[in-house]
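Table 4 source record.
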Amino acid sequence: MRERIAAAAARIMAEDGIDDFALAKRKAARSLGAVQTEALPANDEVEAELVAYLALYQAVEHPQRVAELREVALDTMRALERFHPYLTGPVLKGTAGPYADIDLQLFPESAKDVELFLLERGIAFETQEGRRYAGDRAHAVSVFTLLWQDTPLRLSVFDPRDERVALKTSQAGRVMQRAGIAELATLLRDAAA
Protein backbone atom coordinates (compact mmCIF):
# COMPACT_ATOMS: atom_id res chain seq x y z
CA MET A 1 0.00 0.00 0.00
CA ARG A 2 2.86 2.33 0.84
CA GLU A 3 4.31 1.98 -2.69
CA ARG A 4 0.90 2.49 -4.27
CA ILE A 5 0.36 5.68 -2.26
CA ALA A 6 3.83 6.95 -3.23
CA ALA A 7 3.11 6.33 -6.92
CA ALA A 8 -0.34 7.94 -6.74
CA ALA A 9 1.03 10.95 -4.84
CA ALA A 10 3.74 11.38 -7.47
CA ARG A 11 1.12 11.30 -10.24
CA ILE A 12 -0.97 13.91 -8.41
CA MET A 13 2.07 16.15 -7.96
CA ALA A 14 3.09 15.82 -11.61
CA GLU A 15 -0.36 16.27 -13.15
CA ASP A 16 -1.99 18.71 -10.74
CA GLY A 17 1.08 20.79 -9.97
CA ILE A 18 0.87 20.21 -6.22
CA ASP A 19 4.22 20.76 -4.52
CA ASP A 20 3.09 19.91 -0.98
CA PHE A 21 4.12 16.32 -0.24
CA ALA A 22 1.76 15.94 2.73
CA LEU A 23 -1.26 17.11 0.73
CA ALA A 24 -0.41 14.85 -2.21
CA LYS A 25 0.04 11.84 0.09
CA ARG A 26 -3.29 12.47 1.83
CA LYS A 27 -5.11 12.83 -1.51
CA ALA A 28 -3.46 9.68 -2.83
CA ALA A 29 -4.32 7.69 0.29
CA ARG A 30 -7.93 8.87 0.13
CA SER A 31 -8.21 7.96 -3.56
CA LEU A 32 -6.87 4.47 -2.82
CA GLY A 33 -9.11 3.99 0.20
CA ALA A 34 -6.18 3.76 2.63
CA VAL A 35 -7.39 4.68 6.08
CA GLN A 36 -4.26 3.91 8.09
CA THR A 37 -1.94 6.89 8.05
CA GLU A 38 1.07 4.82 9.11
CA ALA A 39 1.08 3.45 5.57
CA LEU A 40 1.99 6.88 4.19
CA PRO A 41 5.36 6.91 2.43
CA ALA A 42 8.21 9.25 3.29
CA ASN A 43 8.79 12.31 1.11
CA ASP A 44 11.92 10.67 -0.33
CA GLU A 45 9.84 7.74 -1.57
CA VAL A 46 7.32 10.05 -3.25
CA GLU A 47 10.11 12.15 -4.74
CA ALA A 48 11.73 9.03 -6.26
CA GLU A 49 8.38 8.05 -7.77
CA LEU A 50 7.91 11.62 -9.03
CA VAL A 51 11.27 11.59 -10.82
CA ALA A 52 10.39 8.25 -12.42
CA TYR A 53 6.91 9.46 -13.43
CA LEU A 54 8.25 12.65 -15.00
CA ALA A 55 10.92 10.75 -16.92
CA LEU A 56 8.34 8.30 -18.26
CA TYR A 57 5.25 10.40 -18.94
CA GLN A 58 6.62 13.93 -19.41
CA ALA A 59 10.02 13.18 -20.92
CA VAL A 60 9.90 16.07 -23.40
CA GLU A 61 7.84 18.84 -21.84
CA HIS A 62 9.09 18.52 -18.27
CA PRO A 63 12.80 19.22 -18.95
CA GLN A 64 11.74 22.19 -21.10
CA ARG A 65 9.53 23.56 -18.31
CA VAL A 66 12.29 23.15 -15.72
CA ALA A 67 14.83 24.84 -18.01
CA GLU A 68 12.45 27.78 -18.55
CA LEU A 69 11.87 28.14 -14.80
CA ARG A 70 15.60 27.96 -14.14
CA GLU A 71 16.22 30.69 -16.75
CA VAL A 72 13.69 32.95 -15.04
CA ALA A 73 15.27 32.10 -11.67
CA LEU A 74 18.73 33.01 -12.96
CA ASP A 75 17.46 36.31 -14.37
CA THR A 76 15.75 37.08 -11.06
CA MET A 77 18.83 36.14 -9.05
CA ARG A 78 21.00 38.44 -11.15
CA ALA A 79 18.56 41.30 -10.53
CA LEU A 80 18.59 40.52 -6.79
CA GLU A 81 22.34 39.82 -6.63
CA ARG A 82 23.03 42.34 -3.86
CA PHE A 83 20.75 40.27 -1.57
CA HIS A 84 22.85 37.08 -2.00
CA PRO A 85 20.13 34.92 -3.65
CA TYR A 86 20.03 31.12 -3.74
CA LEU A 87 17.64 28.90 -5.70
CA THR A 88 16.06 26.06 -3.76
CA GLY A 89 13.04 23.76 -3.99
CA PRO A 90 11.50 21.84 -6.90
CA VAL A 91 12.93 24.09 -9.63
CA LEU A 92 16.47 23.35 -8.44
CA LYS A 93 15.74 19.64 -7.92
CA GLY A 94 14.18 19.37 -11.37
CA THR A 95 10.83 18.12 -10.06
CA ALA A 96 8.83 21.35 -10.55
CA GLY A 97 5.26 20.82 -11.65
CA PRO A 98 3.34 22.93 -14.16
CA TYR A 99 2.30 25.53 -11.56
CA ALA A 100 5.46 25.56 -9.45
CA ASP A 101 6.74 28.67 -7.74
CA ILE A 102 10.40 29.55 -7.96
CA ASP A 103 11.79 29.49 -4.42
CA LEU A 104 14.64 31.86 -3.67
CA GLN A 105 16.44 32.45 -0.39
CA LEU A 106 17.77 35.97 0.17
CA PHE A 107 20.24 37.19 2.82
CA PRO A 108 20.05 41.01 2.82
CA GLU A 109 21.12 43.31 5.64
CA SER A 110 17.40 43.98 6.24
CA ALA A 111 14.12 42.57 4.93
CA LYS A 112 13.11 46.20 4.37
CA ASP A 113 15.83 46.44 1.70
CA VAL A 114 14.05 43.77 -0.34
CA GLU A 115 10.70 45.46 0.18
CA LEU A 116 12.11 48.81 -0.97
CA PHE A 117 13.71 47.15 -4.01
CA LEU A 118 10.31 45.76 -5.06
CA LEU A 119 8.43 48.98 -4.33
CA GLU A 120 10.92 51.12 -6.29
CA ARG A 121 10.36 48.93 -9.34
CA GLY A 122 6.57 48.90 -8.99
CA ILE A 123 6.46 45.13 -8.43
CA ALA A 124 3.30 44.09 -6.58
CA PHE A 125 3.87 41.57 -3.79
CA GLU A 126 2.33 40.01 -0.73
CA THR A 127 4.24 39.27 2.43
CA GLN A 128 3.81 36.80 5.25
CA GLU A 129 5.92 35.20 7.93
CA GLY A 130 7.36 31.74 7.44
CA ARG A 131 9.52 29.32 9.42
CA ARG A 132 12.72 27.63 8.38
CA TYR A 133 14.96 25.45 10.50
CA ALA A 134 18.66 25.12 11.21
CA GLY A 135 19.75 22.50 13.71
CA ASP A 136 17.10 22.45 16.40
CA ARG A 137 16.28 26.13 16.05
CA ALA A 138 13.39 27.68 14.11
CA HIS A 139 14.06 30.85 12.09
CA ALA A 140 11.28 33.35 11.44
CA VAL A 141 11.59 34.67 7.91
CA SER A 142 9.69 37.16 5.80
CA VAL A 143 8.27 35.54 2.67
CA PHE A 144 7.43 37.73 -0.32
CA THR A 145 5.23 36.26 -3.06
CA LEU A 146 5.10 37.97 -6.42
CA LEU A 147 5.16 37.50 -10.17
CA TRP A 148 8.44 37.90 -12.06
CA GLN A 149 8.14 37.62 -15.84
CA ASP A 150 4.64 36.18 -15.26
CA THR A 151 6.14 33.40 -13.13
CA PRO A 152 5.19 32.91 -9.46
CA LEU A 153 8.13 33.68 -7.21
CA ARG A 154 8.58 33.12 -3.48
CA LEU A 155 11.38 35.04 -1.75
CA SER A 156 12.32 33.85 1.74
CA VAL A 157 14.30 36.60 3.45
CA PHE A 158 16.81 35.47 6.09
CA ASP A 159 19.18 37.17 8.46
CA PRO A 160 22.55 37.62 6.68
CA ARG A 161 24.26 35.51 9.37
CA ASP A 162 22.15 32.52 8.29
CA GLU A 163 23.75 32.40 4.82
CA ARG A 164 26.45 30.03 6.09
CA VAL A 165 24.00 27.84 8.05
CA ALA A 166 22.58 24.59 6.66
CA LEU A 167 18.83 25.29 6.54
CA LYS A 168 16.32 22.45 6.76
CA THR A 169 12.75 21.95 5.60
CA SER A 170 11.58 21.07 9.11
CA GLN A 171 13.16 20.61 12.51
CA ALA A 172 13.74 16.90 11.82
CA GLY A 173 13.93 17.32 8.04
CA ARG A 174 16.81 17.12 5.66
CA VAL A 175 19.06 19.98 4.64
CA MET A 176 17.68 22.09 1.81
CA GLN A 177 19.71 22.02 -1.37
CA ARG A 178 20.48 25.45 -2.76
CA ALA A 179 22.42 26.96 -5.64
CA GLY A 180 23.87 30.42 -6.09
CA ILE A 181 24.10 32.32 -9.36
CA ALA A 182 27.29 30.59 -10.54
CA GLU A 183 25.99 27.10 -9.70
CA LEU A 184 22.67 27.72 -11.46
CA ALA A 185 24.40 29.12 -14.56
CA THR A 186 26.58 26.00 -14.66
CA LEU A 187 23.55 23.75 -14.21
CA LEU A 188 21.80 25.44 -17.14
CA ARG A 189 24.91 25.21 -19.35
CA ASP A 190 25.34 21.51 -18.53
CA ALA A 191 21.67 20.77 -19.22
CA ALA A 192 21.85 22.58 -22.58
CA ALA A 193 24.94 20.60 -23.59
